[in-house]
Amino acid sequence: MQQNYKEALKDPVFNIISDAAAELSVDCYVIGGFVRDFFLKRNTPKDIDIVAVGSGIELAKAVANRLPKKPQVSVFKNFGTAMIKHQGVELEFVGARKESYHKDSRNPVVENGSLEDDQKRRDFTINALALSLNEKDYGALLDPFDGITDLKEKRIQTPLEPGITFSDDPLRMLRAIRFATQLNFEIQLSSLQAITAHKERIKIISKERIVDELHKILSSIKPSIGFSLLHQTDLLAYILPELVALEGIEEIEGQRHKDNFWHTLEVVDNITPHTDNVWLRWAALLHDIGKAPTKRFDKKIGWTFHAHEFVGAKMVYKLFKRLRMPLNDKMKFVQKMVFMSSRPIALSQDHVTDSAVRRLVFDAGEYVDDLMTLCEADITTKNPNKQKKYKNNFKLVRQKIIEVEERDHIRNFQPPVSGAEIMKAFNLEPSKEIGIIKEAIKEAILEGEIANEYDAAYTFMLKKGNDLGLKVVKKT
Length: 476
Ligand code: ATP
Ligand code: MG
What we know:
alpha+beta, elongated, binds adenosine-5'-triphosphate
């Protein structure tokens, strides 16, 4: 007996689709993510996939006609699909199809097929579940590959022989790892082995799609699941070789450094409860990439990674460029986080002075809280005493940041006396003295010699000008 899950189809839109399909005399089913997530009791979906045994485009048009506001239908003729936006959800329509693939493309040759043909071309058994929208068996579950059991046993496997599924469309390798991460599922052994066997096929996948999957992995609760699977299957070497280069512990003269790859994954997991900003999570992922190229052993001081933050920030640019990620303020943000990632710990190792905190706030600007969040996540020591000490130090730094902020307003620092005013005061043409005076004012504020306010800065400017041999012409 087929199981029935009418309760999944409470949304009136399913009745509308059902009626439209009946009128066109085509069978149709809701399939894929929506059905999977219903069984997993996951959040309301952003998209719902409908497969019609017939024309998906015609069905979409018929559905749109029956919807209250007659929404627009976006037709993708080349793909034989159509989309309607309805109450914030994307309804995707496709005709059931049979696919065959060529070696050098992930775009298949397509012909019309049955529901089961269509289920076979799906990536995983848990994504091939379908619920009938047809009057005769409305709500019936169609599950030819026993995806239900895989859902129960938290397992990802392909409906067909995994080697075929993955080499046909290598994006599925990343999707497998991404779903394993999002759902905290295991990838079944033969599927996992097939990923390793076909890893090279990842080369035909566009950078944009790869990054899309990386974003989804990074946005999960425990991204390390995904990155360790990427590493285990060797896909990471094709995607982010900079991270692979961090793996391993070297020992010279009894001195060892930590394994910066596994450390990095811990940092990424640590930061996720504290930020949903995917770019800050990227920063956590990349914060140590400069350590591989800068690693040296020095007989006196042991292992060093001199200027790794600087090198790492430069690598961020190259990496973003290679992966066709945006080279905009997001990239600059990640660079800044990487570049400054050792600052708070260096600061907290000494007595935490106000001026050091002021400099930190000045340099990090509006991102100082993000930087602290990153640095707190960076504490992965297994020594409970050290762990406690670092955490307390950072608490102190955070506290000082608040105090200094209240007093000095260093974040988004604007010089209290402008260049124009300096020129006016000493009757100067644009010249290097103006820069010198401005810099001196900024330094005096950061050092706490003067307050961050107009009068104090103006008086300081007059004195500084005097020191430089300038004459005051007129007080404004
Ligand atoms: P989510 O939307 O939560 O990421 P989803 O399973 O809905 O998950 P989509 O990318 O929206 O994923 O795809 C919808 C459905 O289309 C999937 O459930 C799967 O059945 C099928 N699908 C998507 N991409 C592929 C692919 N590369 N190979 C085979 N089937 C795919
Ligand atoms: Mg979806």
